[in-house]
UniProtKB/TrEMBL annotation:
It is found in: Chromosome; Nucleus. It catalyses: ATP + H2O = ADP + phosphate + H(+); Couples ATP hydrolysis with the unwinding of duplex DNA by translocating in the 3'-5' direction. It comes from Eublepharis macularius. Its EC number is 5.6.2.4. Residues 9-19 have a biased composition (Basic residues). This is Helicase POLQ-like. Its main location: nucleus. Residues 1-69, 200-225 are annotated as: Disordered. Coiled coil: none annotated. GO terms for cellular component: chromosome; nucleus. Residues 534-722 form the Helicase C-terminal domain. Residues 200-213 have a biased composition (Basic and acidic residues). GO terms for biological process: DNA repair.
Length: 1055
């Protein structure tokens, strides 16, 4: 069929034509003859009908419709329209642009008795004057819908493509996107279309008609005269008829649509209801703007784009990706987290290795949370509610340490909420092979994999070796790249020669240069390794990190370098250095480490665990801002916060007394090179001639494998895992426990099994040990089932152990200590409670100074001295140990050491000054800080332990209060401010003295005003503190709303 005409079958006996229509028809035929086929012979009134297959082609409006109301000759539709017009006096102002309809949309209407009735509607309607007229349109639409149900594929196949396309659009125009919308919603959608046009569209239609047909002036329609709806519909049908019909079969198009719908349904199923809400990887443009605002990131690296668009991520598969340090791994994880929170509306768990990194990440992401409407919750130390609050509206991002993450997953599993976690992100995935913490991480991931089939796991690391094992364990895809934004060059220094690490060289090294630096004889003795020469090549213009084997070596190297630096170094940024010294002095309550006092004027400081958290944080800020140009540090800095440098120097290939591992080496040298600042980074490993071969093996060896740690430390990991499986009801029989064990990393590495033992044997041994120690029991069976079918139950003690995350090695000891405490709990002082919450694992790190021990004992009150006798350490024992006398009555050394540590905690709570307490006990302030943090975390565990045992009810309220004191260790008025992430004691004091005494006041503070009010507070820090305060306030408000709604909720089981 050619365009411009339509085949019309004319039935007999119905040839009526008005004079106006006839005359119009003659003019129309004259115009159409140039592009339409010649008309066939028409039937007279007495002529026989034509062959039904024969059709007549017409190109004009009147020839096409003549005296008929519709294509099929049915008069019902237009008769109804005439009736409506007559009833209401005038027709509605329908203005239908047939030309635009020919290119865009068409609608099909049918009556139940007709074969086909088709006409096109205009894209928009100028107005609908009465509710009755709108009701008419709705009635027409309902007739249209009812008739469509009667159609089959053969009828649809004969329709023009524009009509099929309009079926969907007409649905939206009449009733809106939601088919269940009420009348008000339908009126809104219709009016939305009406508002888009004006009466000018009538003029456009008339003008188009003139341009196409060029009629005489006398034949033009009068714009002031309103057309009847009947005429307008005919005009619309004419335009619809002129629409070129698609040459493609409609049945084929429908089949293609069906296939497309099935494909879309499959994609939706695998995509877990992913909602694309913007152009930035499915996220709104605001996310991209926030990255520029908060991070200064305008564009992603190519590898980041490739990774984010991986097909495996779209299919919700687990993913492991590995790149060198500073490659931008974290940004990819954060974008995936935002996709989960905003697009899929699911909670997310992010597991990080250390408390400091958790606090840094919470502070960084709180700004995004406030802008985008999600919560960021900290789970580190004693912080974090277990189980987490179930939020009504907002989704939560849980940022946790490895240990807290495990407790969080346990609580979600127990409460049937594990599927609320849509995504779990693990940073430093290689830590799964590092001792007891690695075993906890393995347990956490195995439980998620087993309990939730909808939770996606993303793991990232810069140092992965046996990726195949991890892929099999996590059922994950793997992505890797060697991309690094700044090139890294590795060197090894032996004597005066510096060699570049070269994999292509025969011996692995290529000579680079000879160190040419004039040393005096005295300087050569002080600095035989030429550290001063290597450092001064880059400082003060660029930054430098020197990794040392021990904490003491860090301090010595910093002082040595300062002794031989020129005085010019002191003049650089002198005022800012003075401010730094003043801040550190205030942090330490008027005291300052003498080493730092001597080194900071030169722009040098040391960084290790001997510093308090406040001191480390302030030194890190000064280094990042360029006030300090060199840090001497231990290996802990490499795995902690990101502090890059132009040059990284490794003082020796040792960590403490052990030779360095490849993973540690890679972590340290990965700090070399600052993206956007340096064009290259370099690392220099200083080695002695005797270690040359070991160093060659180190730099060229592959990374260490990540091996399961479940069997390390006397099977502590697997025992704890099996106990929690029974407690969480993940497994109830030995067979089910074994089935779970087959899904762990341990099962993927059979080489770790003891000789001549299978995984089943190891599992059975763990079950037997738990039963023998009263943590598990077998439920009596009434039938003669085999032994391995017996159901297992957790005992009350076992329940308390796994709920409190208590190390099973100390479980019995803790129970005995708590039980003994009930016999004579001394509450006149907090010393007894502090003893009960002193961590058992800190005892091994304690070597009491007996003179100090005896002195501190004598300063206790008589009631507090009674605590020592109650726990089993009499005064005579301490006195004899201090005087060096022989001891007849033996006392458990672990109890004596634990009591000594409780003395430290007791002094700390009384004075709240870590520096003075460290001096009093002749220990490092870093050790005191570590003890305090460990005690805060352990007290929380003991509290959960007691909550599961009825006989320890008295401890519940007492331990809750002591745990809070240990967590903050400040005066009560500072605690609300200390709850804000990133606010430590020194900053809390500043804020409090500046008038920001409550959380609400701080959350509503203006960052610009805060910068002016608080001494030496940068804008970035101010924005981060305010964002964190707002986030914490929002969390508390959400929790209270949840509690109120829970109280008011009507129980569903009320009759």
């Amino acid at each position: 069929m050619e365009s411009g005409g339509v085949a019309v079958k004319r039935p007999r006996g119905r040839r009526r034509r008005s004079g106006r229509a006839a005359s119009a028809g003659k003019r129309s035929r004259g115009r159409a003859c140039s592009h339409s086929p010649p008309p066939c012979k028409k039937l007279g009134s007495g002529e026989a009908p034509e062959d039904p297959e024969h059709t007549e082609y017409n190109g004009s409006e009147d020839d096409m419709f003549g005296d008929y109301d519709s294509f099929s000759g049915n008069t019902s539709l237009l008769a109804e329209i005439d009736f409506v017009e007559q009833r209401h006096g005038q027709p509605p102002d329908f203005v239908l642009d047939s030309k635009s309809l020919g290119n865009k949309t068409a609608v099909q209407l049918q009556s139940t008795n007709s074969v086909e009735q088709t006409f096109s509607f205009a894209e928009c309607v100028t107005s609908i004057r009465s509710g009755t007229e709108h009701d008419f349109l709705r009635t027409t639409k309902e007739q249209h819908d009812s008739c469509l149900k009667l159609q089959d594929g053969d009828v649809l196949e004969s329709l023009p493509s524009s009509q099929l396309l309009f079926l969907k659009q007409s649905e939206e125009c009449f009733v809106g996107p939601n088919t269940t919308a009420d009348k008000k919603q339908r009126d809104y959608h219709v009016n939305g279309c009406l508002d888009k046009t004006s009466d000018q569209s009538h003029c456009h239609e008339t003008e188009d008609y003139k341009n196409e047909s060029k009629p005489s002036t006398s034949t033009l329609p009068d714009p002031s005269r309103r057309k009847s709806l009947k005429d307008l519909l005919k005009s619309a049908m004419t335009g619809n008829a002129r629409v070129p019909t698609s040459l493609v079969s409609k049945s084929k198009e429908l089949k293609a649509v069906a296939v497309s719908e099935e494909t879309g349904l499959a994609e939706k199923t695998t995509d877990a209801a992913f909602v694309d809400i913007g152009p930035f990887y499915g996220l709104p443009t605001k996310v991209k703007e926030l990255l520029v605002k908060f991070r200064g990131i305008e564009n992603l690296y190519d590898w980041q784009h490739d990774c984010l668009t991986l097909e495996s991520l779209k299919q919700r598969k687990n993913l492991i990706y590995s790149l060198p340090t500073s490659g931008g791994k974290t940004l990819v994880a954060e974008i995936l987290i935002l996709q989960e929170l905003l697009c899929r509306q699911m909670d997310v768990l992010m597991i990080l290795p250390y408390v400091a990194i958790v606090q840094e990440k919470v502070g960084n992401l709180s700004s995004f949370g406030m802008e985008l409407g999600f919560l960021v919750e900290e789970y580190a130390g004693s912080k974090g509610k277990i189980p987490p609050v179930k939020r009504r509206l907002k989704k939560s991002l849980y940022v946790s340490t490895i240990e807290k993450g495990h407790s969080l997953v346990n609580s979600l599993t127990e409460n049937g909420r594990i599927c609320d976690l849509g995504l779990v992100v693990v940073d430093e995935l290689h830590m799964i092979g590092e001792g007891s913490r690695g075993a906890i991480l393995e347990m956490t991931l195995a439980k998620i994999l087993y309990a939730s089939k909808t939770t996606q796991i993303i793991g990232m690391s810069a140092t992965l070796s046996n990726v195949g094992d991890l892929q099999q364990f996590l059922k994950a895809e793997y992505y890797t790249s060697n991309f690094r934004p700044v090139e890294l060059k590795e060197y090894v220094k032996i004597r005066d020669s510096i060699f570049e690490v070269d994999n292509t060289a025969e011996n692995g090294f290529t000579f680079s240069r000879l160190l040419d630096y004039k040393y005096s004889s005295s300087l050569q003795k002080m600095d035989p390794d030429h550290l001063i020469a290597l450092a001064t090549e880059v400082i003060p213009k660029f930054s430098c990190l020197i990794f040392c084997p021990t904490k003491k070596n860090c301090e010595n190297v910093a002082e040595t370098i300062c002794k031989y630096l020129k005085r010019d170094y002191k003049t650089l940024r002198e005022r800012e250095k003075r401010d730094l010294i003043e801040d550190l002095t205030n942090i330490c309550n008027g005291r300052l480490c003498p080493v730092l006092k001597r080194t900071i004027p030169f722009g040098i400081a040391y960084h290790h665990s001997g510093l308090t958290s406040d001191e480390r944080k302030r030194i890190e800020e000064a280094y990042s801002s360029g006030v300090l140009c060199l840090l001497t540090c231990t290996s802990t800095l490499a795995a902690g916060v990101n502090l890059p440098a132009r040059r990284v120097i490794l003082r020796a290939p040792y960590v403490a007394t052990e030779f360095m591992k490849k993973n540690q080496y890679k972590q340290m040298i990965g700090r070399a090179g600052r993206a956007g600042i340096d064009s290259a980074g370099e690392s220099i490993l200083i080695a002695q001639e005797k270690d040359k071969q070991l160093v060659r093996n180190l730099v060229h060896s592959p990374l260490e494998s990540c091996s399961s740690s479940l069997l390390l430390e006397c099977d502590r990991g697997i025992r704890s895992l099996v106990l929690s499986l029974i407690g969480l009801k993940i497994a109830a029989t030995p067979e089910e426990v074994y089935h779970f064990m087959c899904s762990t990393l341990f099962s993927v590495q059979p080489q770790l099994l003891p000789k001549e033992k299978s995984l089943w044997d190891v599992t059975e041994e763990a079950l037997q040990w738990l039963k023998q120690n009263g943590l598990l029991k077998e439920r009596a069976s009434c039938d003669n089932e085999p032994h391995f079918h017996h159901h297992l139950e957790i005992t009350r003690l076992g329940q308390a152990a796994y709920k409190g995350s208590i190390d099973l090695a100390y479980c019995d000891t803790l129970y005995a200590d708590l039980k003994k405490g009930l016999e004579g709990l001394i509450l006149e002082s907090c010393l007894h409670l502090l003893y009960l919450t002193t961590p058992y694992d800190m005892v091994a790190q304690c070597s009491p100074n007996w003179m100090i021990y005896f002195k501190q004992y004598n300063q206790l009150t008589p009631v507090e001295q009674q605590v020592a006798a109650t726990v089993g350490v009499p005064e005579s024992f301490i006195a004899k140990k201090a005087s060096g006398q022989a001891i007849r009555k033996d006392v458990d050394s672990s109890i004596a050491s634990r009591l000594y540590l409780s003395f430290v905690l007791h002094a700390l709570l009384k004075e709240t000054n870590i520096w003075s307490v460290a001096e009093k006990f002749n220990t490092s302030r870093g050790f005191v800080q570590t003890l305090l943090n460990s005690a805060a975390s352990f007290s929380s565990s003991v509290l959960h332990f007691c909550e599961e045992l009825d006989e320890f009810w008295v401890y519940k309220a007492l331990l809750a209060e002591i745990s809070k004191k240990l967590t903050y260790c400040v005066k009560a008025e500072l605690i609300p401010l200390m709850e804000v992430t990133g606010v430590l004691e020194a900053r809390a004091k500043q804020l409090y003295s500046s008038g920001y005494k409550t959380l609400a006041r701080l959350a509503n503070a203006n960052p610009e005003v805060l910068v002016k009010t608080v001494h030496r507070l940068s804008r970035r820090q101010a924005r981060q503190i305010v964002s964190s305060a707002k986030m914490l306030l929002a969390e508390k408000a959400e929790a209270l709303q949840e509690e109120a709604e829970e109280l008011l909720r009507i129980p569903v089981d009320i009759p």
